[in-house]
Amino acid sequence: MVPSVIAAPAWRAMQADDLDGVVATARACFPDHFEALACFAERLALYPQGCLVLAAGTQVQGYCIGYPWPLGAIPPLDSLLGELPDARDAYYLHDLALMPHVRGQGFAAQGLDRLTAVVRGAGGEVIALVSVNETARFWDALGFRAAGASPALVRKLQSYGEGATYMTRAV
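Above: the chain sequence. Below: its structure as tokens.
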């Protein structure tokens, strides 16, 4: 009997066939922040170069989604964007999610490095995100810092849950 070879996870461009795995990963990682498959499909259609999956063969183990967005603003959860806004002075890291069994192996930093290369290639200077589920220390270790938030942004952050923090990092 020939032993089966299990592919090691690696980051690659997201494809439409990956979306079910992306949704499953999102549900496992963010049970309190549901987003429909249509939201992920739209992000992929609007800015495919900012959509990555960590996959072992065809099995999605994680994903990273980022796209141009206004600095100091955040998109609403589980909502279609329609189009990317004209004001694009930052890149919004919508999600970086890893299944529990692949965490702690450097894949988050690798995914962020790949997205950072996309941002640099497009002339971007800042990546912004909302830290949820008490992950600010994790993002801090990757170079992100809590950023000032307008009263409107503070109100919007409340929809992301207690302790949600708007953070930025220069590329």
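The first strand starts at residue 10 and ends at 13.
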